Amino acid sequence: MTTPEIKINVRTAYIPEQSEPAEDRYVFAYTINIENQGEQAARLLNRHWLIADADGKTQEVEGEGVVGKQPYLTPGEAFEYTSATLINTPVGSMRGSYEMVDDEGTVFQADIPIFTLAQPHVLN
């Protein structure tokens, strides 16, 4: 089950001081804001990411919670965190989902729409 009551916004930033373009190493930070716009509280249990570079190489990342936490969001509450990823090209993308559970024990997926990772001035 997917729910529209969990709204997810993403901001990205290229991190030049951790990147080594000559070695095909591009590091990007991403800040995720998760807002519960529903009428029931929910806890984020797990994350699932698909990270793709411009060469078609895809990494799949799964794990418990986010940044070591399993945030519990009451209606109207939001949680924000920043993490980072490494890809081998100056442009890539990420998409995924969070597995969540509401107070009634119903497990559902909150989809994370695809977003672009791009070194500045690479895309118009």
Helix share of residues?
under 10%
Query: Which structural class fits the helix and strand makeup?
Result: mainly beta
Radius of gyration: 16 Å
Uncertain residue segments: none
Number of strands: 8
First-last Cα distance: 37 Å
CATH names the topology as: Immunoglobulin-like
State the order of secondary-structure elements, H for helix, E for strand.
Answer: EEEEEEEE
Largest sheet, if any?
5 strands, antiparallel
* Mean pLDDT over the residues: 94
Rough shape?
Answer: elongated
Give an account of the 3D structure.
There is one protein chain. The chain is mainly beta and 124 residues long. It has a single domain (6-117), classed as Immunoglobulin-like (Sandwich). The chain has strands spanning 6-14, 26-36, 42-53, 58-64, 72-73, 78-87, 91-102, 107-118. A hairpin with a 4-residue loop joins strand 3 (42-53) and strand 4 (58-64). It is elongated and about 50 Å long. The N and C termini lie far apart (37 Å).
Short description:
Helices cover 0% and strands 60% of the residues. It is mainly beta and 124 residues long.
From the structure above, extract its key features.
single chain, about 120 residues, mainly beta, Immunoglobulin-like, three-stranded antiparallel sheet, 8 strands, about 60% strand
Can you lay out the helices and strands and say which pair or pack?
Layout: E1 6-14, E2 26-36, E3 42-53, E4 58-64, E5 72-73, E6 78-87, E7 91-102, E8 107-118
Antiparallel strand pairs: 1-2, 2-6, 3-4, 3-5, 3-7, 7-8
